[in-house]
Amino acid sequence: MFGEKVIIVEGLSDKKRIEPLIAEPVVILCTNGTVSPTRLEELMAPYDGSELFVFVDADKSGEKLRALFKREYPEAMHLYTEPVYREVATTPIKVLANLLMAANIDIRSEFFV
């Protein structure tokens, strides 16, 4: 659907961690790890024209996936968790909320800091 926000994460645990924070209609897609350019194109085809956000782990597989997105979808905005937390799923809720708010994604009021 044109114009919607799409957040790309690596796994279901990442999705479950950020989904309750968000107060607007957003699609959260799981890549389930590193994907090929062909598979990525198939995954992203329904979201052509959407605002893309890439929020992957601060590890080797996350950086590989991020590099693929930078090459294939240079318009995507990249969100970064602190390397000390390593994974989106282990990043503290308040840190996630601040990162999402900084990207102009509406956050539920109980998570404002």
Structural summary, described in words:
- By secondary structure, the chain is α/β, with parallel strands linked by helices.
- The protein has one domain: Dna Topoisomerase Vi A Subunit, Chain: A, domain 2 (3-Layer(aba) Sandwich).
- Helices cover 34% and strands 18% of the residues.
- It contains four helices and four strands.
- The chain has helices at residues 12-18, 37-44, 60-72, 93-102, and strands spanning 5-9, 26-30, 51-56, 77-80.
- A four-stranded parallel β-sheet has the order 2-1-3-4.
- Helix 1 (12-18) links the parallel strand 1 and strand 2 (26-30).
Short description:
Helices cover about 35% and strands about 20% of the residues. It is α/β, with parallel strands linked by helices and about 110 residues long.
